Amino acid sequence: MIKIGNIELPDFPLLLAPMEDVSDPPFRALCKEQGADVVYTEFISSEGLIRDAAKSTMKLDIYEKERPVGIQIFGANLESMLRSVEIVEKSNPDIIDINFGCPVKKVVSKGAGAGILKNIPLMVSLTEAMVKHTNLPITIKTRLGWDADSIQIVEVAERLQDVGCKAISIHGRTRVQMYKGNADWTPIAEVKNNQRMHIPVFGNGDISSPEKALEMRDKYGLDGAMIGRATIGNPWFFKQVKHYFNTGTHLAPPTMAERVEAARRHLQMAIDWKGERLGIVETRRHYTNYFKGIPHFKETRMKMVTTDDAEDVFAVFDDVLEKFADHQFV
To answer: Which of 30, 49, 102, 280 is catalytic?
Structure first.
């Protein structure tokens, strides 16, 4: 059994990574139904929270069916981060996660996200102050380092643990790499194998198949997997991984009817939560994967991602079910 603070999780839990414009309540609900053990919100700006910016505060919405759920915040200013902890607590999450890994320029340029990897003492002192400021477990999401010449993740992880961090998720790339090249899980295993480490160490980056998840568990010996891009338009990924762990065989892919139903529910929940316009636009990125592998689908997909009326999108879903009902996914 794996524990984050007092939260008990199964052996080798699967975590839905926080992803901007992806890990919203509708998608988290679908992933939870399909076996995600912990889900995280999109990352939320501490500066946006303390200014009561609508986009930031909306991301605080969490629901009972999601638990355990973590709210992830980012920032580099101590006072703002502490005030944002107080705001986040009112939403009653199970976990507060600090993003020390986002590589996007507009975040990094302010010294937040992966930008803080250039200032490890600040990273540690911010974590310590936040741990002392709340009774909720504080966890960390980070990268191996700023660049290949500055990787100190074994020491950094231990220091974060020593100031009270309850779990750490590490993406196997540096900030300079962004999402290019291959994730390197070896340094993450070195963190796990450090005999002074006793908190869970979760791996992140390039977990694109059940086989990869198994490799992370059995070859690299990590405590769990945080999965991001492989889940976009594919909430079934969690169930597929668990089935593979239990049987050594691949679960049959979802049928066309299951895919259409998931897409319909996803869009309807998104509209209910954020309104028709945003709901339609922010769900589009999932459709490519919901319907991946269907031949001669380009025209249908174009309709799906350019239509601005909800009823018209639902009509396209009905059309897909009718036209491609016999397609066999592999």
So the answer is: 102
Confidence of residue 202 (pLDDT cuts 50, 70, 90): very high
Same domain assignment for residues 89 and 147: yes
The H or E element containing residue 162 is: helix 153-162
- Is 102 a catalytic site residue? yes
Average pLDDT over residues 123-135: 97
For residue 284, give the CATH number of its domain. Answer: 1.10.1200
Distance CA 261, CA 45 (A): 33
Whether the model pTM is above 0.90: yes
Q: How many domains does the chain have?
A: 2
Cβ partners under 8 Å of residue 303, min gap 6: 312, 316
Range of the domain at 59: 2-247
Residue 171 lies in a domain: yes
Where b means 16+ CB within 10 Å and e means fewer, 64-88 reads: eebebbbbbbbbbbeebbbbbbebb
Helix (H) or strand (E) segment spanning residue 251: none
**Which is higher by pLDDT, 295 or 125?**
125
Assigned token pair, 307: 């239509």
Q: What is the DSSP letter of 138?
A: E
31 pLDDT exceeds 90?
yes
State the CATH number of the domain containing residue 179.
3.20.20.70
